[in-house]
């Protein structure tokens, strides 16, 4: 019986930590470069620095992702309700033409970048990407306040943004 209790406690501890909200990005994530709409490569740390002084929502998405497209009206609602919040979109598309067409089609307002090696690449692994759309919220100092939210978490995202006003 003691062994069973110990196993259950260990399992519960592991389950809780596997979904834990991280407070910082790894050095791998920060040093990884992403493609900008102007064709240049930009380090993720520089993308974050650019937003310093603003609360920022980072959305990781792709034009081929049905859940991402379905969530777009909610993202636009967030933008309307939080006009001082900066939005940075990071695409996991395979080609830049699909990515750029998706930005235009969905009329996404904000800064745009594309991962060079999609979801299972270096950047995706470095931010623990297991689902898109994925939302990360940074406070005005650039500190992570919400590391992992998905399209079913818009109430949590909105609540977090309201706390940061």
> Any idea what the shape is?
globular
- Quaternary structure annotation: single chain
Along the chain, the helix and strand elements come as HHEEHEHEHEHEEH
- The unreliable regions are 4-18
Describe this structure in words.
A seven-stranded mixed β-sheet has the order 2-1-5-4-3-6-7. With 165 residues, it is of the alpha/beta class. The protein has seven helices and seven strands; from the N terminus they run ααββαβαβαβαββα. It has helices at 2-18, 27-31, 44-50, 66-81, 96-106, 122-126, 154-163, and strands spanning 33-36, 41-43, 56-61, 86-91, 111-115, 134-138, 144-150. The N and C termini lie far apart (50 Å). The longest helix has 17 residues, at 2-18. 43% of the residues lie in helices and 22% in strands. It has a single domain, classed as 3-Layer(aba) Sandwich (Glutaredoxin). Residues 4-18 have low confidence and may be disordered.
């Amino acid at each position: 019986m003691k062994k069973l209790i110990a196993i259950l406690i260990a399992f519960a501890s592991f389950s809780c930590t596997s979904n834990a909200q991280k407070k910082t990005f790894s050095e791998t994530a920060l040093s990884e470069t992403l493609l900008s709409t102007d064709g240049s490569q930009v380090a993720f740390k520089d993308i974050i620095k650019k937003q310093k002084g603003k609360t920022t929502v980072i959305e990781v998405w792709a034009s081929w992702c049905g859940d991402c497209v379905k969530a777009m009206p909610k993202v636009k609602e967030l933008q309307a309700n939080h006009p001082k919040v900066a939005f940075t979109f990071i695409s996991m598309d395979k080609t830049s033409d699909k990515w750029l067409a998706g930005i235009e089609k969905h009329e996404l307002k904000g800064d745009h970048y594309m991962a060079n090696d999609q979801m299972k690449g270096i950047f995706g692994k470095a931010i623990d990407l297991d689902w898109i759309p994925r939302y990360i919220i940074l406070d005005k100092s650039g500190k992570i306040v919400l590391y992992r939210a998905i399209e079913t978490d818009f109430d949590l995202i909105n609540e977090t943004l309201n706390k940061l006003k």
